[in-house]
Amino acid sequence: MRKLLVVGLMVLPLLVAGCSKGPAEAALKAADEAIANVAPDAQKFVPDQFATLTAAAAEAKASFDKGDYAAALAAAKDLPAKATEVMTAATAKKDEWMGEWNILSKDMPILVADWQKKLDELIASKKLPKTATPERIEEVKAKFAEVNATWTKATEAFNAGDLKGALENGAAVKASIDWIEGVWAGIAPAAKK
Predict the structure, then answer these.
(1) Residue 15: what pLDDT?
(2) 3-state SS track over the chain
(3) How many angstroms separate the CA atoms of 187 and 51, rounded?
(4) Of 76, 171, 181, 187, which alpha carbon lies 20 to 30 A from 126's?
(5) Distance CA 74, CA 20 (A)
(6) Distances (CA, A) of 181 to 16, 50, 82, 174, 192
(7) In sequence order, which residues have a C-beta less than 8 Å from that of residue 35 and are 6 or more positions away?
(8) Burial class of residue 86, CB neighbours in 10 A (0-12, 13-18, 19+)
(9) Banded model confidence at residue 138, pLDDT cuts 50, 70, 90
(10) At 129, phi and psi to the nearest 5?
(11) Average pLDDT over residues 159-186
């Protein structure tokens, strides 16, 4: 009888571990599916939050691999809810960036066209101020060529689904236009200011 009791006590932890392995495995599977579902947008729009989520999943898997099924279950059971939170944050960030892009894509072509017209008029002008040296005009023309090239990159990035790249290039265009505007007062004829 005593031998049976000792054997029973030795087998009990194995039975408990075996019983908790299944739920831990199921929780990890649910977590993996939830993370896979949010990955495309989360990686683009909230990479830091996505990295935290995947690190938590890796810790849960490490516990499972060590045989600590209780810890794996505890770590994995909340991951689907956390994945939903990450997706909510990604959607909010995507909406924010789309709003910014919509403003840029509406306003920037008009702004660029206006500055192109001003530059064409300046170049065609018969009498330029002394400050409008050929070097300064070439500098503005080069900056304007950069504006057009960067805006093309912005629209290409947007069309390729790279909203972050589109906004970064759009911001570079805006900075270049601001530079042109700052230089303009010094080189434009008084009537064109």
Answers:
(1) 39
(2) CHHHHHHHHHHHHHHHHHHHHHHHHHHHHHHHHHHHHHHHHHHHHCHHHHHHHHHHHHHHHHHHHCCCHHHHHHHHCCHHHHHHHHHHHHHHHHHHHHHHHHHHHHHHHHHHHHHHHHHHHHHHCCCCCCCCCHHHHHHHHHHHHHHHHHHHHHHHHHHCCCHHHHHHHHHHHHHHHHHHHHHHHHHCCHHHC
(3) 50
(4) 181
(5) 11
(6) 74, 40, 47, 10, 13
(7) 53, 54, 57, 79, 83
(8) buried
(9) confident
(10) -65, 160
(11) 90
pTM recorded for the entire structure: 0.71
Distance CA 67, CA 63 (A): 6
User: Is residue 76 within 8 Å of residue 28, measured between CB atoms?
Assistant: yes
Q: Which residues of 131-167 are buried (b: 16+ CB within 10 A; e: fewer)?
A: ebeeeeeeebeebbeebeebbebbbebbeeebbeebb
Whether 9 contacts 49, CB under 8 Å: no
**Residue the block writes with tokens 């909203």:** 163
